[in-house]
Amino acid sequence: MSLEIEVDPGEVGFDAARLNRIDQHFARYVESGKLPGWLVLVARQGKIAHLSTHGMRDIADDAPVRTDTLFRVFSMTKPVTSVAIMMLYEQGAFELTDPVSDFIPSFADLRVYTGGSARAHQTRPATEQMRIWHLLTHTAGLTYAFQYLHPVDELYRRAGFEFGMADDLDLAGCCDEWAGMPLLFDPGTAWNYSVATDVLGRIVEIVSGQTLDEFFRTRIFEPLGMIDTGFAVDRANADRLATLYVADALGRAHPHPKQAELRAMAFDQPKALSGGGGLFSSAHDYHRFTQLLLRKGELDGTRLLGSRTVRYMTRNHLPGGADLETLALGAFSEAANAGKGFGLGFSVVDDPAAAKVLSSPGEFAWGGLASTAFWVDPAEDLTVLFLTQLMPSSTHPIRPQLHQLVYQSLVD
C-alpha cells in the first residue's frame, strides 16, 4: 500500500524546519555505521505530516529503505495481542481476574524461585494464582531467557527458549513448558518483561477457537487494511524485507550472524506463533494500527474496541500506581523507566518530569528488539513510528532522542 505525506506540517502545528532535525540527527547514525537505515513517520490529527527514510534495508545489496520496506517488529507484536485479548474480553469471554489455569491447566500449581543456581535451585508454592491481568501487565512472574539477569532466565535458555520460542514446540507446548518453570516472584508483586504476552496469545486461541494468525488476520488485519502484517513474509515480497543487523561492542551495525537462516525462516509460518514478538509489518500497516489506538478503537468506520476499553488499557495498572523504575526487576530498553507505568499492553507516561524526556501525561508506547518504536500521545493528537533493524534495542538512545526531536518541532 502507498504511504505519503498527507498534510503540510504547519497546518497541524509543526515547524517544518524543526521536523527536518529528525532526519539530520538520525542520518548521522547511518553515516557513522550505527544503523543500517531507518524510516520515521510523524502524524497529527490523523494525517501524516512527516515521512522520511534514510540508509539501507540491506547494505550488502545496496538496497535502500523504502516506505514499503518490511520489518521484523518483534515486541511491537505485543500491543496487537493485547488488543486481541481485550476484544474477547469485550465479548464477555473472561474476566481480567480469571486464573490463567482456567484456560491452560498447566498453570495451576505454580512455584516461585527462592534461591540457588539454575542447576540447583529452591522453590516454594506461589501465594497467588496467575491471572489474565498479570499477563497483560507483565506482573506474572515469568521471564525471558535473553535477559541474563536471573537464574530462572538460564532455565529458560536450557529449555531452548533463547529468543522466545523453542524450535520443536508449538504455542501450546511452549506454554506448558513455561508453566513448569519457577516464577521470579509471586504474581502481582513486581514487574518483569517476559513471555507473558505469548501466553495471552494462547488464551486468544483457546477462547476464540481460532489459531492466533487466523484471529489476527480475520479480526484485526483485514478489517484495518493491514495487508503486509503477519507471522511470515509472502515470497512475492522477498525483495522488500529488511536485513536484520546486530551491534558490535562499539555500537556499529553488522549483519546478524545467522542472517541467511533468519531470512529463509521469514517465508515459512513458524510452528509456535509468538504473540509476544513474531510479526513482520510495514510502516503503512503499523501506522494504521496506531491510528486505531489514537481514535480509541475505531478507524475509518471499523471499530475493534470500545473507547472506554482503550482508555482503560492505556492507564497505569501497576500495583499502587508505581512506576517501572520502582517495580521492574531490570531494564528492558534504552529508555528511562522513571515516571512511566504500565497498562494492559503498553508503557504509560504518568509524569514527564520524572521521566526526564519531553512527552505528555497519558502517552502510551512500546518498541521492539530490533530498535523499532512507536508512541501515541492523545493529549497532542499525535502518533510517531520509527522502524529500523538493529539488535538489541538498548544499543543507542534512539527512543528518548526521537521524543526530543518530535516535541521540539511542535510550535502551535
Automatic annotation (TrEMBL):
Highest taxon of the lineage: Bacteria
Pfam family, one: Beta-lactamase
Beta-lactamase-related domain: residues covered: 22-405
Descriptive protein name: CubicO group peptidase (Beta-lactamase class C family)
Organism this protein belongs to: Saccharopolyspora phatthalungensis
